[in-house]
Amino acid sequence: MLRRLNSAATLRELRDGGEGTLSELAARVGLSRPTTEGVLGELMERALVAEDAPRPGAGLGRPARRYRFRARAGHALGVDIDARRARVVVADLTGAVVGGHVAGLAEQAPPRERIAAVRAAVKAGLRDASVERRSLWAVAAGTPGVVAPDGTVTSCTVIPGWTGVRLARELGRSFPCPVLVENDANLAALAERWRGAARDADDVVCVHAALHTGMGALLGGRLHRGRWGAAGEIGMLPELGLRDTTAALVPDADPGPLFEQAERVLADAARGVPAARDAVQRLAARMARGIAAMALVLDPEMVVLGGPLIRTGDALVAELRRRVAPLCPSPVRIEASELGDESVGLGAVRLALDRIDEDLFRLDRPADTASSAADEHEAAQ
Which CATH class is domain 2-54+62-69? Predict the structure, then answer.
């Protein structure tokens, strides 16, 4: 057990704190040089640590060897699935994005066709990143709707036929590693805390404004899913004004693509077109009730506005700030997403990395499970 504790501490220090010599790492982790040397040897055998050539000109005598975390020893893959497209994000073990792909989807496509298109998008994303499938250590996918703990979509009004789809199981057939599925607003919340507007905030509500408006919540820095994965789905109550968000912005929409028309209204509002500004004000008045209700229940440090209908600094963000404030007795800090359309995909990567960390730093890890699982999957192909 002590050896595994030392190994986990050294590996985490290399990943989070950067490379170092044997002496530097021993001091940073608080271990003796012989112990650190033994740990580094084991980590190199597991292909998690590499030894780099000494830096020249470092003084008299032989330069000290340097060790670094092998960020590309494995990879995490995030997938954002919605009615119109699939976004794939491939990242190394530090979370650095190394490639990806975006593919359009037919809005009325049946589940089997949609899943096949997602698989094709994943293949294209891996090709773009020059990453082999066997290098994936965890995959996470985001989807609209309520997602049960086993990765089944138990309720979805956005994607036709999506309710009841066992998404984790369906996608899992394509990968040699764990596959997780989570609600898209929940993943957006993870992403905003990781790399967006809510960096390091512990209590956060993320509003994901799309066809409908969903919400994800972090409490004490942890994602709050609820017993059945439905936490934050207060938009199910029509009285709170969060259903049919896009349609409410363009009630007299043409038969063409709804999102494109909504984006034109938002652009016109930003330019000061009176009719468009009126439409944004009506939508903000409608959405403010639901956002205030969530803020009153959770009293968060911050509310982050994201999703396809939100643009940094646009009129809708300003109008929501103005209308939510008088509904809440405490100050409500409202910020626009810093990640835009990438929030759900990045949140999926973060969830996959968290799953990888569970295996990478677990103290009872019996063997190199990631590589053995990949070998078994490859043999089964």
Answer: mainly alpha
In 2-120, at which residue ranges do the beta strands (DSSP E only) sit?
20-21, 49-52, 66-69, 75-81, 85-92, 97-104
- Contact of 332 with 296, CB cutoff 8 Å: no
* β-pairing verdict for 20-21 and 66-69: antiparallel
Task: State residue 374's pLDDT score.
Answer: 44
What are the b/e assignments for 172-194, b being 16+ CB within 10 Å?
Answer: bebbbbbbbbbbbbbbbbbbbbb
Superfamily of structural domain 199-338: ATPase, nucleotide binding domain (3.30.420.40)
What residue ranges do the domains of the chain occupy? 2-54+62-69, 73-187+343-374, 199-338
Which residues, in sequence order, are bridge partners of residue 204?
218, 302
Span 188-226, pLDDT tens digits:
999 999 999 999 899 999 999 988 899 999 999 999 999
Which one is the CATH code of 73-187+343-374: 3.40.50.300, 3.30.70.380, 3.20.20.70, 3.30.420.40? 3.30.420.40
pLDDT, tens digit (0-9, with 9 covering 90-100), for 46-99: 999 999 877 666 555 667 889 999 999 999 999 999 999 999 999 999 999 999
